[in-house]
Write a structure and sequence with these properties.
Distance between the termini: 34 Å
Protein name: Ty3-gypsy retrotransposon protein
Organism: Vitis rotundifolia
Helix content: 40-55%
Order of helices and strands: HHHHHHHH
Radius of gyration: 27 Å
């Protein structure tokens, strides 16, 4: 809620300033130690400040909003934009496993937290075995059988936290078997 409020304030400020570097002109002038520096040094610093102002002015409103949002989230522990992206919950070893040539995924019954999770796992394993898929390859196929809350659970698993079918089955049953 606070992030949205800050973004609205930034948008209002940008609209008031006309989206240009002229919007920076309303800031008060502050005395700086440069006022007593030699002329050449002041000139270099002034040019540097002009370049910095121009680069800030060239940023789009969206870029400024993203910078502010990410800074606030980092400060207060919210998710950054990179954590909002999907990442596979299984390890690279599992990801590198390949299905046999010509493999056609079977039609799975969906589990959405309604029904018996133990029966779902048994049905899933049998369906995969009938399609000549077994072992850790089941990990890659399991997501196809999940919907709703169960799918949400799957996509919220930590990056590369699953390294075997046994582990996936255990995690799934721990999460859903007790919540029937």
């Amino acid at each position: 809620m606070q992030i949205a409020s800050l973004i609205n304030k930034v948008e209002a400020q940008v609209q008031n300033t006309g989206e240009s570097s002229q919007g920076l002109n309303h800031l008060p002038n502050v005395a700086s130690p440069l006022d007593d520096a030699p002329h050449a040094y002041r000139t270099v610093q002034a040019e540097r400040q002009t370049v910095e102002s121009a680069s800030v002015a060239s940023l789009s409103i969206q870029q400024l909003q993203d910078m502010i949002t990410n800074t606030i989230r980092a400060q207060y522990g919210g998710p950054s934009q990179s954590t909002l992206m999907y990442s596979k919950p299984y390890t690279k070893r599992i990801d590198n496993l390949r299905m046999s040539v010509g493999y056609q995924p079977p039609k799975f019954q969906s589990f959405d937290r309604k029904g018996n999770p133990k029966q779902h796992v048994a049905h899933f394993v049998e369906t995969c075995n009938n399609a000549s898929t077994d072992g850790d390859l089941l990990v890659k196929q399991f997501v196809r059988s999940l919907r709703g809350n169960a799918f949400d659970w799957y996509i919220d698993l930590a990056l590369e936290c699953i390294d075997s079918w046994d582990q996936m089955e255990r995690e799934f049953l721990n999460r859903f078997y007790s919540t029937q």
